[in-house]
Amino acid sequence: MRKLTDDQIRQKLAEGRNYKRLYFELKDKCDSVIAENKQLKQDLQDQKQYFEGLIETQAAQIAELQTMVYGRKNRFRSGGKRPPTGTPRDATSYRRPKPPENEVTSEEHHAINACHHCGGPLTEKEEYTKFIEDIILAALDQLTQFKTVEKHTVERGYCVSCGKYSSAQDLRGQEVTLGPIVRSYICYLVTLMDHSYSQVQQALWDIYRLKISEGEITTILDARRLELLPEYEKLKETIRAGPAVHMDESRWRIQSEHSGYAWSMSGTTSSDVVFKLADNRGMDNAEDLLGKGFKGIGITDRYRGYKFLFWLHQICWAHLQRTAKDLTHLTCLGVAKQKRVTKFYKQLATIYATIRVYQQQPFDQVTRNSQADDLLKQVTTLCQPHTLDPKKLADLKAGMLEYGNCLFVCLTVDGIPADNNRAERDIRKLVMKRRKSLGSKTTKGARTMEVLLSVCWSLYNRDRNNFFPNFHALAV
Question: pTM above the 0.85 mark?
């Protein structure tokens, strides 16, 4: 074996040192590339999850908008038979009841003396009674005076003692005005019947041949608001005095403010309701309805504005269940996520059904506390996050865990409903009116409408058969 020279050894050592240096340089570059590749993979995975969640959320929003515009697909249209609901109706339910004798305004006797077929004599004749109920329409009955016109001649004289004029009645205002009955009827059309001003004009002309301008309608409503303000404030006090209040809100456009919301407050022990029409969705509107020092229980949805308003707070279970049920109709979800959502909805519906069963039982504080604790444990387990949860389901679970102490006040306090359906029914009245009138033009109009709607709907809910006498008595 040939021995290396000193120069060759020095050359080999130099090459070794170069190789070693290059090795560490390449190793650093390789480690950097590996780390960068790992980070890029992680970023790619995060971007993928983000866009998948974004696509899922947008698809869910599109599905919800399609349901709002076109309605949910009816699975019975393809020929399937709809299952029967409720108890079968009796045949008499399709017939009008016989009116009492004191309501009969005229009678007519129809006699028969010969056979219609051959003209022969009739024997064993019998009598049958029939009734025809109808109304008197002013536009059809020209002989009856349905519009009254009172002519008032008012004397006015000059006092030679004080040098002033005196009159038997106040002479201010227009020469021709509308009476209290038609004013009450206009309020009824605008509030309970959801009529716009043009519809009020049309109804009064078609039925009573009475012309009225939009300015007159506005003046009548403004004047009636001033008369009903004490009753409006009384309604607030009555509802606040109860053990709990229902509250809800919805959009109500005030055109001069380019925004607006409608708020409702109703009690659990009466049928009264109070509305507030505001130019924003701020918590101060709910505080204004509740007043200072309110110590009752609030029943609402999970809107943040209600969170710190009440001493005790009950979250609406019907709202939670409806939100979960809507998720089961999202066809944009994959099979695995669809199963996950459906399972969650069924378990949530079971808990809600259990609450209703417990509420039917006699109230016992110890038993109810134990039942509430058991159900809270079930909710906590049910709402644990899962990788297959869509974003809307994850948000719903997080919201339920956040409001865990507000889910079972309906069990631990006697007489507290588990849902906010009362408030939703009340606010729906404003939603239906908003679709026709598109809200209020000015803030002043909103102030007028909130008073009229509150008083009219409260009186109507108390006794619809005597609404007009009760409402008319407040304004006379």
Answer: no
